[in-house]
Amino acid sequence: MESPFKADAVKGKVALITGGGSGIGLEITKQLGKHGASVVIMGRRKHILDSAVSSLRSLGIRAVGFDGDVRKPEDARRVVESTFKQFGRLDILVNAAAGNFLSSAEDLSPNGLRTVMDIDTVGTFTMCHEALKYLKKGAPGRSDSSSGGVILNISATLHYTATWYQLHVSAAKAAIDATTRNLALEWGSEYDIRVNGIAPGLIGDTPGMSKLVPKDINSQAKNLLPLYKAGEKWDIAMAALYLSSDAGKFINGAIVVVDGGFWISQPRP
Ligand code: HXC
User: For the Ketoreductase domain, which residue ranges apply (predicted)?
Assistant: First the structure.
């Protein structure tokens, strides 16, 4: 679908996207790139990153991939530093890396919970922490900018209620939302950095959807989804573009729900 934003909405910006090699992370990367940003993607699987970088470059996007695991502080630091070395600045950090599986609470081991918390929550915080010095107002390479940079943390709506077999992810995403709000308060006040979240609902054609959601969800859509369909990765990417561009310059500490009204919905009587 054609973007409603101008092609230079984030021109000259440099964006680092964790989990940018596939799914929602890749679509966010693509749209930031198509709207003028230079993009760096970080992920654990080199072959996935390589193929994503080729597809981004084929669209004329300045793209680089650095492999790394957000659970490893040394990887986070290396990728942030490499991003700065490559493009000379950092304006936008998107934390889209996530781990997931279905497990009942009874079968979930403490290490299973810890693993998802480590990837989603601690990984998000680690990336924010490493990127801070480059995102501050007046930071190296971005002294031309009158404000600090932008952080976007991808969470979910699972924890607004309770979700079967997703205790670990619900806990991790709730903690991400808390991290988003607290960083928005502290780093907004101190460094003029805007920190926001996006909470996707059911988004078709993503690793999360194919792993977690029953295949016949679209046939149940009339009962479950107010807009009668799952969303597209594009919907999440447009929210990311809005929040990271100057259109969102007064938005800080918000968690933007992009779910077509799913989490508030009830089955039709
Ligand atoms: C129960 C499981 C499990 C499973 C792993 N564990 N898979 N427990 N059921 N299916 C437990 C293991 O038993 C182990 O605990 C602990 O978790 C660590 O497992 P490892 O395999 O050693 O970890 P690792 O190799 O690091 O892999 C972690 C991973 C990850 C989380 C499984 O590989 C992964 O999920 N990758 C896929 C990424 C993905 O799908 N991303 C999209 C997310 S979508 P013990 O006790 O045995 O040591 C998303 C959307 C959410 O986040 C919202 C949807 C609506």
Answer: 13-181
